[in-house]
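Quick one: structure for this chain?
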Amino acid sequence: MSANACVPGTGSDGPPLLRESAAWRLLSLLFERPRAGWHEEVDALEPIACDPALSAAVAAAREEACEEAFLGVLVPAAVSPREVSWQKGDAGALLAELRATYEAFAFRPATEEAPDHVSVEAGFVGWLLLKEAYARAAELPDEAALTAEARERFVKAHVARLAAAMAQGLPKWGVSYMTLAAEALASRAGEPPAEPSLDAPPPPCAEGCAFAPEEEEAPPV
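Got it. Here's what it folds into:
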């Protein structure tokens, strides 16, 4: 199967919610630290997501992705992958809100990252899409609608501003797979809200490489 081929029944001809869930999970992985088995997971999800932009990111990741790239770019001194670096307000309140929201939807990812890390937030969106798909398959329209509303509000309140900041900051660091992933994430998340806030109500519950910026210094965080 070619790198851009879709898996029958799960790609372009499969259920849209499951396809989109796979796309958000793939985005989550692309912003995780590459580890043993990471490339295999990414390659397995790419044909399920069946998205040309994500396929391009995965193709670049096969050449570039390594722990050095992750640590050299996705750190506060370069381009922060955490929402607290780009929002205004009480960081503690943000983290508490995120933890409560994840718990409300039984989202307990096995990760080393903070709740506001882009990989965790993208993974949560993928989780909500999966839960919505299950609710619709089980003919539970109220539950499906609640989950869809929570997902839309979460993306707007949390993911959109972080995605826009990363899409703007990553290109100068010369790691194309991260740049492509950030652009795909920003495209999905849409325009960030005009006024950042950490005080909004929570959504409804229920081999070696070295990279340096090509120009300019990284923005302060």
